[in-house]
């Protein structure tokens, strides 16, 4: 049976050159790193959930159980070519600190995050309810998401850390490239994927 991967993970895999060393933060079950082995990439996953770590080990994915907020100092400067943080930035306590560590660990980063300002979220707020969607699928009392951001709110954070945006790829609710591209992305995109490099 053919393995099915999230659409946005396939986009991320396409953006990473063959043979790259990749650190996947919040790697989940290891899907991205498994995809990247098909391109001759080597990598390490990091996750705090014991179930995810066990699943990675079962699949032969190299994984370390670490806290992204406090333990990224375990990785040396420029020890990887790319660091990936996919749909995870909103769940950490210190997003700025995690991004700064990413820029130290690798020159290139890929970061994706749900767009809280998506039109469906705005409509739900107008109805007096907290947003729920494919990218924000949790009830307010049971969500792992600690931070919510719009696209215009997120990008100055990158700039303040000397992380240069090489590409912004708006995504639809299913994780595919949005048909409208960057046109009206803060209203239309369910999430956004960024290709960044650290200014050194």
UniProtKB/TrEMBL annotation:
Q: Which Pfam families match?
A: MetW
What's the domain of life for this entry? Bacteria
UniProt xrefs under InterPro entries: Methionine_synth_MetW, SAM-dependent_MTases_sf
Spell out the protein name for this chain: Methionine biosynthesis protein MetW
Q: Which organism is it from?
A: Tessaracoccus aquimaris
């Amino acid at each position: 049976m053919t393995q099915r991967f999230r659409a946005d993970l396939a986009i991320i895999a396409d953006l990473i050159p063959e043979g790259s060393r990749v650190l996947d933060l919040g790697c989940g079950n290891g899907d991205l790193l498994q995809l990247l082995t098909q391109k001759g990439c080597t990598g390490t996953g990091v996750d705090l959930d014991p179930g995810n770590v066990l699943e990675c080990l079962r699949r032969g994915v190299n994984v370390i159980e670490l806290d992204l907020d406090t333990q990224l100092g375990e990785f040396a400067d420029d020890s990887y070519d790319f660091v990936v943080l996919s749909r995870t930035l909103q769940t950490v306590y210190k997003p700025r600190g995690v991004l700064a560590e990413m820029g130290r660990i690798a020159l290139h980063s890929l970061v994706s995050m749900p767009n809280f300002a998506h039109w469906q979220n705005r409509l739900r707020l107008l109805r007096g309810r907290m947003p729920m969607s494919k990218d924000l699928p949790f009830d307010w009392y049971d969500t792992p998401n600690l931070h919510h951001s719009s696209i215009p709110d997120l990008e100055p954070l990158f700039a303040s850390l000397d992380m240069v945006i090489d590409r912004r790829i708006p995504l639809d609710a299913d994780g595919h490239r949005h048909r409208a591209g960057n046109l009206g992305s803060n209203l239309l995109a369910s999430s956004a994927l960024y290709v960044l490099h650290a200014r050194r």
